[in-house]
Every structure is written in C-alpha cells, then in structure tokens.
Amino acid sequence: MYVIEHALLNLGKNKGRNSLLAIIILAIITTTVVALAIYNTAQTVMEETRRALQCAVRVAPQRSSPGTGVAVTAGGGQQEAAVTLEQYLAFASSQHLDGADVKEGGRNADEVDAVYFLKRPELLAVFEAELRDKGLPDNYSVKTDESTFASVAGPVESLQKLSLTFLLIVLVLGAVIMVLLSFIVIRERKYEIGVLRAMGMKKEKIALGLWTETIIITCLCFVLGMGAGSILSQPVSDAILAGQAETSAPGSSSLADRLNEAQGVVPPTTKIDIAIDPVTALEIFAVSILLASIAGIIAVSRITKSEPIKILMERN
Predict the structure, then answer these.
(1) pLDDT tens digit string along 113-152?
(2) Residues paired with 58 in a beta bridge
(3) 294 lies in the same domain as 175
(4) CA torsion 206→25→284→42, rounded to 10°?
(5) Which domain holds residue 305?
(6) Do both 62 and 177 map to the same domain?
(7) Rounded Cα–Cα distance for residues 181 and 17 (Å)
(8) Which of 116, 180, 240, 262 has the most other CB atoms within 10 Å of its CB?
(9) In angstroms, rounded to a whole number, what is the distance separating the alpha carbons of residues 225 and 34?
C-alpha cells in the first residue's frame, strides 16, 4: 500500500515530466488501437466473405455455342440444353440451401443465371448429387466461384497488411521512445533514488514504486487512448479504402453484389464497420502494460546498480 501511495504522491509532484510521458504513452496506445482494430475487423470480414463465397454455388453449362442455347459436349457434338427456368427454380427447394438467386437474361447458354447459397460449404457434393437426381445434365457444372474472392476481398486484405505493418512500426518505435524517455526520467530522479537507498529501502521496492508510477499513467492513458482510437479507427479505415478504390478496377462482380443482398456480406470496396471487441481491448491493454514494463525495467536496472554513496557524491 505504501508503494502505491508514494507513487501517487510522486505523480502529483512531477506534473511536467509525467505529462510528457503520458503524451507519449497516449499516442502509442491510440495508434495501436486504430491499427489493431482495423486488422482484427479486416480479418473477420475476410473470413466471413470467404465462407459466404464458398457457400455460393453457380449452376451453369460448362460450354455452349454463343446465342444458340445449345450445349456443346466434349466430343464436339451438340446436345439440347435440358435445364429450364422452372427446373432452376425447382432446384432452389433443396433443404441444403439458405436461399437462391435465379434470374432470366443471365450469361448462361440457356439465358438463366442461377446462384444457390448453401447452408455450409461442406454440402456442395451432396447438393450436386441431389441436382443430378433431379435431372441436371452432366454437361452442367455445379461449383463455387472462388475466383471472385480475390476481387471482393482484395482491398480488405491490403488494408489488413497495411494495418499490421503500421502496428509493428508503432510498437517498435514506441518501445524505443519509451525506453529513451524512461532513461531521461530516471536520470533526473537519480538523487531521489540514492536517498531512498541510503535510507535502507531495497532496490526491488524502489523499482516497484517507479514501475507503479508508469503503470498508473499507462492505465489512465489506456482509457483515453481507447476512446480516441475508437473514434479515429472508422475514418482512417474509410480513407484507406477510398484511396484503394480510386486505384483499383471500378465495380464488383454481379455474384458479389448478390452475395451482399442475399447473405448480408458488406462490400469491402465500400466500407468496413470497424469494431473494438473485448478481445481487442484486452490485447491493447496487454501490449501497453508490456511496453511500459519493458521500458521501466531497462531504465531502473541501470540506476539501481549504482551504490547509494556514489549517487549522492555525484549530486554534490
């Protein structure tokens, strides 16, 4: 209890020095919140988008003669397209589906565009077998359009990599700055440490007191940094995605658009709703305490190695 009371007393005495330390810690925590929140949210969006695309199954002729509505077999012969709009609609009644999007005037040979949304990606083989039993010809394919994932999730993946790079830079530079600043602070308090040790206070207790001061400042900055980071995360994410949209090919695939409507997948090229969940907040708190502890331990260890009499003589 004495250590905490002494730490609080010292925080009140050295407002200027502690304010500078608080500004540095607050900046580190705020930028960490922004980067980590964007990274974790982008990861979640990518996983959801990938799963949604794996659940989207397209049924279409494998190859067809343009404008004829006639499918071409592997041997070059022609075979009348047997699947009608009514059959496409009947396929949608499968118990393995969460929904379907069947439209006339599509790009298939029979002028029907059909996409079926599985409850789970693992049901693809079962669903295809069911369609074959219902009369789907062998020259029709039943497959997921996984190639769409690259175009749909590309901007999100770039955003995730950028946020991770930014996070690593912030943590490395933050750790270096914290260590240097701690050295400066401890050197200014070298005489105080010498007096405490001359009075008989153990090195471990002195180190604990100094560490407690840093942790108190860090906890206060964590609360402020979480609030500031939560406010800044969304605008930063929107700005980055807007910049990517200007340099990428405009528009997204029709399948991606229908996924957005049928499955509720947010179009990554438009906006990602950044959210800070309890896990992210805990990660940020752990990183903040770790950086503060490393900086404090490195700096304090250098000072506490000196003998009290030597510290006092240097002051005189």
Answers:
(1) 788 888 888 888 998 998 888 888 888 888 876 666 666 6
(2) 115, 143
(3) yes
(4) -160
(5) 2-52+149-315
(6) no
(7) 10
(8) 116
(9) 10
